[in-house]
Amino acid sequence: MDLGLKIKTVRTQQNISMNMLAKRADIAQSTLSRIESGQQMPTFDVLERIVSALGITLSDFFANNQEPEPLPPEVKQVCDKVKQLPLDKLKVLNAVLDSWD
Q1: Among residues 71, 48, 70, 42, which one has the least CA distance to residue 60?
Q2: What does the pLDDT read at residue 64?
Q3: Does the reported pTM lie above 0.85?
Q4: Which residues neighbour 29 within 8 Å (Cβ) at sequence distance 6 or greater?
């Protein structure tokens, strides 16, 4: 994960200027610029202050918000069929799958 790019992305999504974020995080704007451009890695303390200044938690910052990779067609076909099974047949299928372990 490119921390600088992630910070810049969240900052621009929130329509916050680099200057404003630097002030909120109590860091120099030049430091934030170097972090966003990938020239400098933030310390944990600085990252925590930046994320807090963005109004999110570290957990939210590191959460994977990307779309999941699509399933292969064969897996999708099986999933679609399983979704249509009545409960009794779903239990049988589950028992069969458990026996393969």
Answers
A1: 48
A2: 72
A3: no
A4: 18, 19, 22
